[in-house]
Design brief:
Helix content is 19%, strand content 34%. It is an alpha+beta fold. The longest helix has 14 residues, at 60-73. The chain is flat.
């Protein structure tokens, strides 16, 4: 698991589509701070389908930066 507080923005050229997976967004309150957690689960064809694959947590600053990037990108 990783907590993201800031990130660098780069443009990806020649990107290819990825398979869609199940995703759950969790609202986390750790007591001292609130986080947005994104959990992705394995593709149906994996050895253990539906197994938790990746978890990432965003603090408020990283989430707000991501929202602004999304608004300007789309």
């Amino acid at each position: 698991m990783a907590t993201v507080r800031d990130f660098t923005v780069e443009h990806l050229e020649n990107a290819r589509p990825h398979e869609e997976v199940e995703t759950i967004v969790r609202l986390v309150d750790c007591g001292r701070e609130k986080l947005i957690q994104i959990d992705t689960y394995g593709r149906p064809g994996r050895e253990i389908p539906g197994k938790l694959s990746q978890t990432i947590r965003l603090d408020k600053a990283a989430f707000e930066k991501l929202v602004q990037l999304g608004k300007s990108h789309f």
